[in-house]
Structures are given as structure tokens and as C-alpha cells.
Amino acid sequence: MKVFYSAEHANHSPESFYIWGQIIAFTPDPPARAENILEALKRDSHLVLEAPPYGLRPIAEVHTPEYLEYLQTAWAAWRKAAEPALATGLLTHSGDAYPLIFPVRGVDARYPSSALGRAGYHASDLWMPIGEQSWEAIAASANLAVAAAEAVLMGERSAYALCRPSGHHADKDRGGGNCYLNNAAIAAQHLRSGIGRVAVIDIDSHHGNGTQRIFYDRDDVLFISIHCDPDDCYPYFVGYDQERGEGRGHGYNLNLPLPHHAGDATFLAALETACARIAAYAPDALVVSLGVDGHEADPTDELKVTFDGFSSAGARLGRLGVPTVLVQEGGYNLDTIGSCVTTVLAGFERA
């Protein structure tokens, strides 16, 4: 299987993380996530390739112009806005760009001109820090998804994009949950430029709320998500089984929320339901949002899937017999993330 990787991912290295009322000098998404996956892929003798540049056009097919401009200019605007506080010594440095205020539900949200206002307008939560060089990593991550989709369009049975940062929580005009551009949606849309119908299946332990929103009113892209019940799991407000799509997209959105600590049998049963729906839809290509944070050793402690479970999942997806783009999403145990990914890929290739 061709693997697409970019060293640009290391340009995104958040210096802090907000959780439980504190900003701490930690990030769940350090560069080591991608490096550890890369080393595991090399041990399994995968062909690791650089992606040619595809520019902004494939990204702009999914995301709004205002959002793309924001991502490219956010840190510089943030730094300029902080200059008065830096000059007086109130701040020692400006740090990553974080939102201060979010649009209030039920109130028309006018698009602001200020750096602080735009940070809140384009974010769904505080898990979206933007540093001085984050855009380079964000754009490179999306470019990998385009490269993998292009490889499949050119006849490859499958291709894997080692995307970091992840993308499935990103909507058309906002990000969150350590996601900025929706890599899986960008891959799916790029596939649509050359084929008829695409299915997207998200097996990350968190619901792919951004991907759902992007395709919610469309029937040319089927979206399915298997994830921990959002009643007590991020993203909390979306990801329930009654969400079926709207307009032309009604019936083309399927959520399969699972209980905490579901385990292999429950996870694989949901995957079987998902695969039956995919087979009935008969897509020309498949995109897999490959989150491995459901592993039993992941610090999120949510689905408790074993290596055997991930191997079986990869094999079941492979047996669909559909040209497939696999896009990296979550996974936060640095010791196991690489083995989780290669286990899925090995299962897929064995099918």
C-alpha cells in the first residue's frame, strides 16, 4: 500500500492544552504521534512517498474562503493584536492563537474583523490552538489526503495518508478537537471529481461531526460513523443515531454510537452493520477515517478495542472490495499508535 507522509507536520506543535479548567504545558497531539506511525510503517516495509503539491483548490472545494484565510493569517493577526499587552509587560509572549468568545446559540453571528472575534467564529472549542507555523502543517496534512485520493483515482487499490493534524471534527468554516481542515472530506470530494459515489466510514472513537455536517444534505457521499456514545463523550452535542441527513441527503447518514468500553465484539458488530450499508450503497470508492483511539491502551479509555479487533476491522473493510483511501485521525498512546495503524493496514491488505 502506498503511504503518503510529510515532515511538515512537525511545524504544528502546540505549546499548551486546556482541560478541566487549566491550561497546561502539554498537548495530546505532539509531533511524535506521526513519527511513531511512520517508524511502524517503515518496519512493515510500506512504501513511504512525498505528496506532490495540489494547492488550495481541492481544499477550497470543501472549506469556505473566509476560513482558509483565517487559518493562514490567524497567528500573525493574533500576534499583532497582542502587541500593546506585550509592550506594557502584561504579557511575556503572545502564545498560540486561542478563542476568547464564541457565537451564542440563537443569535445571528456577524463575521468579525478582529483576531479575537475570528478565533471564536471559526472554532467549536478551545482545542484548536494555532501557532506561528501551524498553517504549513495543516495544509500539508490535507495535501496528503488529496495525494492518496489521486492515487486511488489513478488505479491503486488503496492508499494511506499519514495526516497530522487530524481532520474529522472540522466543518466547512470551523475547526475543533485538534482538527483544522477535514482531510477525509477533502479526499472524498477529490474522489468525486473522477467517480460517481463515495462512502466515508469513520472508526475513530469520537464522532466525525465535521464530516457529517459537510455531507449532511448530499446523496452522492454516504457517511457512517462508529464511535463512543456522545452523551458522555466528545463532541457531546452530535453523533446520535436519529441523525439521518436532510434534504437529498436524508438516509445517507448513519451513526452507530457504542457504549463505553464496548470491546471487540460490539465494535465489530457495528462495523458489520456499517459494511452492509456500504455494500448496499455500492460506492465507487471508500474513504476510511482511521482513528485508533479506540484501542484498549489509549488514554481516552473509551472503546477498548484490541489489536485483534483492529486487525479484523481492517480485513472486513478490505473485503468490501472497493478502492479505498485511509486517512489518519486520532490515537494518543505514543507506544501503541504505530502498531494500531499497521495492524489495520495489514488486515486490509490481507483481505
UniProtKB/TrEMBL annotation:
Listed GO MF terms: histone deacetylase activity; hydrolase activity; metal ion binding
Alphabetic keyword roster: Hydrolase, Metal-binding, Zinc
Residue ranges constituting the Histone deacetylase domain according to the UniProt record: 28-346
Cofactor(s), names only, from the UniProt record: Zn(2+)
One of the protein's GO biological processes: epigenetic regulation of gene expression
Gene3D superfamilies (UniProt xref): Histone deacetylase domain
InterPro entries in UniProt: HDACs, His_deacetylse_dom, His_deacetylse_dom_sf, Ureohydrolase_dom_sf
Family: Belongs to the histone deacetylase family.
Protein name: Histone deacetylase family protein
Taxonomic source organism: Phenylobacterium montanum
